Amino acid sequence: MNRKYIKLFAFVSAAALTLSFLVGCSFKTNTAASPDVSAPETAVSPSTVPASPVPSVNKKDIEDALALYGESVIDITWAPDNSAVVFIKLTGDTSNIYLWKVGTDAEKSLMAAEPTTDGFLWSPNSKYFLVNVGHMGPGTITSTLFNAESMELISSDISTASISPPVWSPDSRFLALSSWADYKTAELLTFAVASKTTVSLVKSSNSFGPYVVETWGEDNIIKYTEMTSSSDRAEKTIELGE
User: Fold this and answer.
1) CA distance 107 to 101
2) For the whole model, what pTM was predicted?
3) Which pLDDT score, from 0 to 100, does residue 14 have?
4) What single DSSP character describes residue 149?
């Protein structure tokens, strides 16, 4: 063969071999970089999913909601710290007592309201409230006591003279009550919330009327009045221990 053709043939062969090698490398590189379409998608961990926001209902939201009921809601009474509200809602021929806590999205029914139910009395620490059930006996009103935090019924038989509403102690542990059940014996008592027990503080036979509890001060002194023979009221005090 002519030497010129031999050199040309050798050059073409070498070029073809080099091209084949480069194409093979490129094919392998591209194949490795290509995504595996058959591979499953990575699952999202439940811990990475944001939780649903907790309803944040403030006092104004509750007031606006109660306003929509119009005259169907009565005796709306807020706790001293505005953490909850208790009220009576009329539905047809029935009426129920409800408690609505700030931060919750709806009111909770506690009990049926008696026809004589007349208002509520919160404790100073906003943990308890009394439902004034009304006149349940001669010269007597009876109250029902609830725990506002747990909505537990503590007592349904807290009685006091009708002219002397219950008075809370400053620490919310006791109630001062008056008794004149037989129209002769006037008595000043305390009701302990924790033990549900009643203790007599002052007692007078052949009285002219029931004691009236006026205040229970921070100094742990209870001020009350006593009916005299001339139908006047004499001011009295009693200082309690720790």
Assistant:
1) 7
2) 0.75
3) 43
4) T
